[in-house]
């Protein structure tokens, strides 16, 4: 483990373009193009990334690139949108799995681990830094990132906590606040340290497991029914 918080288990995987099917003509697909553009933005920053470099790496003409994305601003917005949609789609099944859990405490610990693996992974930290660094020049992209990533994931967890409360597994009065509390209990301290040290402060997996366990225990001490055993 080097600069990453944990092994890269985030929604975007290693960030490599998908394997090309045998016999397909040269040139990247739409999804591959966005993955390549993301690599360039993360490696070179917004200013250092050029449409020429993206087109060359994707093995497409500049005309083809500009037809799909009329400007670097448009390409950047598409990259961020694609990234957050991948993240939401990857996390959603793990959040919904709480509803089918026989052991809610264990399921919350598993979800905590998934949140850590995604949010604290090096690619996600780099994307957050990129979006934050460009927020003044691209405020709409930054706002869309927050809405499509944080707000949607928070809303899904809040809805899940509401259902669990209706089922008697929890006693949550304000599901949005409870969802925020759970997330920050399990990722807050390491996220703060990793973002402020440019991910140079490594976390061992057993340290993150301990944070997840303690955060889950604290959450359940507040929201588990009085008769529940934890």
The description of the largest β-sheet is:
none
Number of helices, where a helix is a run of at least 4 consecutive DSSP H or I residues = 9
Q: Please give the share of residues in helix.
A: 55-70%
CATH topology of one domain: Tetracycline Repressor, domain 2
Overall structural class, as computed from helix and strand content, comes to mainly alpha
CATH class of one domain: Mainly Alpha
In whole angstroms, how far apart are the ends? 32 Å
Compute the gyration radius: what is it?
20 Å
In quaternary terms, these chains amount to: single chain
What average pLDDT do the residues reach? 87
Q: Write the element-wise H/E pattern from the N-terminal end onward.
A: HHHHHHHHH
Got a strand count?
0
Annotated CATH architecture of one domain = Orthogonal Bundle
Strand content: under 5%
CATH superfamily of one domain: Tetracycline Repressor, domain 2
Low-confidence stretches: 1-25
Shape: elongated
Question: How would you characterize the overall build of this protein?
Answer:
With 230 residues, the chain is mainly alpha-helical. It has a domain at 77-223: Tetracycline Repressor, domain 2, CATH 1.10.357. The chain has 9 helices and no strands. It has helices spanning 30-48, 51-58, 62-68, 72-96, 104-119, 122-133, 139-166, 175-196, 205-223. The two termini are 32 Å apart. The relative contact order is 0.14.
């Amino acid at each position: 483990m080097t600069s990453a918080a944990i092994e890269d288990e985030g929604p975007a995987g290693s960030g490599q373009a998908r394997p090309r099917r045998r016999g397909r003509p040269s040139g990247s697909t739409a999804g591959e193009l966005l993955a390549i553009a993301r690599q360039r933005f993360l490696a070179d920053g917004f200013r250092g990334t050029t449409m020429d470099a993206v087109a060359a790496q994707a093995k497409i003409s500049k005309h083809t690139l500009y037809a799909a994305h009329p400007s670097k601003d448009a390409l950047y917005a598409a990259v961020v949108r694609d990234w957050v949609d991948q993240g939401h789609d990857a996390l959603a099944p793990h959040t919904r799995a709480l509803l089918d859990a026989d052991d809610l405490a264990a399921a919350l610990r598993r979800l905590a681990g998934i949140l850590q693996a995604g949010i604290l992974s090096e690619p996600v930290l780099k994307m957050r830094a990129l979006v934050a660094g460009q927020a003044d020049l691209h405020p709409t992209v930054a706002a869309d990132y927050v809405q499509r990533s944080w707000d949607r994931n928070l809303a899904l967890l809040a809805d899940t906590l509401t259902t669990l409360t209706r089922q008697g597994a929890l006693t949550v009065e304000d599901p949005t606040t409870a969802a925020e509390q759970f997330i920050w209990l399990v990722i807050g301290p390491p996220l703060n340290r990793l973002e402020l040290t440019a991910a140079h402060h490594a976390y061992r997996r057993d340290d993150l497991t301990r944070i997840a366990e303690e955060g889950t225990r604290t959450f359940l001490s507040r929201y588990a029914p009085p008769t529940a055993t934890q």
